[in-house]
Amino acid sequence: MSVEHTTVIIGAGIAGVHAAESLRKEGYQGRIVLMDCDKEMPYDRPPLSKEWITGETDKASMLLRDPGTYERLDIDLKLGMEVVAIDPVRKTIDTKDGSSYEWDKLLLATGSKLRTLSITGDDLQGIFYLRTMADAIAMKQHMQHVKEVVIIGAGFIGAELASSLKQLGMNVTIVERSSYPMEAIIGREVSEYLLDMHRRNGVEVITGDSITQFNGETTVEEAVTAGGRRIPCQAVMIGVGVTPNTTLSHPQLQAEGGYVVNEYGETSIPDIYAAGDCTVWPYNGVPIHVEHWDHAVNHAKIVAQNMIHSQSAPYSYTPYFWSDQHGSRFQYFGHATQWSKTVLRGSIDSNAFTYLYLDDQNIAQAAFLANQPKNALPVRRMIQQQKAVDPEALADESVALKKVPRMF
């Protein structure tokens, strides 16, 4: 292969691996250097809170690609490499070990980093954040003799962990600071539904409270809340969200809640691109940030195309994520930070419904699906079309979603 040109990709997660693979599929003949600070072969993160914890999958099956794939595609995979500086003039990057790499095109696929808490006693053994394979291995080893677990945060990671650990027969308590977790994303009615689902499945959920102290000799034995609750536990999982990993910076590199990119994945510095969870990108004319597996894959593929054929493929994507909890599959399409009305299609009590979020013009901005995968495709199309719909017909299950009248 020709090595006249070099593309360096920083981050070997979902976005980085798919971008490298897509470059080859698009016919790129130059050198590809794919690097990551993690020493593990690139792996899939979502199963860490589900199939890995419950023992339904092993380490090898979580690899994003067979190790031989990188050799076959002539991708120079460099693990355990931390990038510390970018020089856009010389077109080089420097790593912590003192190495320097030249590049013609650079892709930032640095993903996200954990939000952390500072709580008295948080240096005790048995207190975990779940982000990396190393975290998951340490957690799984510790959990072998644990009966009582406290989970801080009722977001999707915390909720999935609660489901997985309950499945293993543990007593699980979730402590959530807000009264209605994820209300800003899914609304109060759906938030109440999810809280009730966990309680029906034997998970104790404490809302409107927070952990202020951990007690124990060497290993955590008790979590104390601001409201005075004392919760016995032998393990604590902290899942209070993530933020875009924009640690790697440069004065000319615009980062506002993520590396700011245009519809082609271009950053504010020529020949530097960014893809996936670390970005803020234009959606329906508004800059947004999402941290979804599906977005990371699709964004990386499109950005890779634009790295080869400049500004040839604008990114047009409807955000999507899913979550498996207590035997249910939840799906969310679109992006809505506010809405004028909601439409319930189906029955919440039946655990099978579609909940839609409409703006003041009756245009669907987002939808939450509970155990109704058949509605996924028509809902996605409805959101993509951005046309007003008839709310009454939308709520009527006798009217097929694809036949709900559009109000032009």
UniProtKB/TrEMBL annotation:
Domain FAD/NAD(P)-binding: where? 7-300
* Protein name as annotated: NAD(P)/FAD-dependent oxidoreductase
The record's PANTHER family line, in alphabetical order, gives: APOPTOSIS-INDUCING FACTOR 1, RIESKE DOMAIN-CONTAINING PROTEIN-RELATED
User: Which Pfam families does this chain map to?
Assistant: Pyr_redox_2, Reductase_C
Q: Which UniProt keywords apply?
A: FAD, Flavoprotein, Oxidoreductase
Which residue intervals define the domain Reductase C-terminal in the entry?
Answer: 320-404
In terms of superkingdom, the source organism counts as Bacteria
Cofactor(s) of this protein: FAD
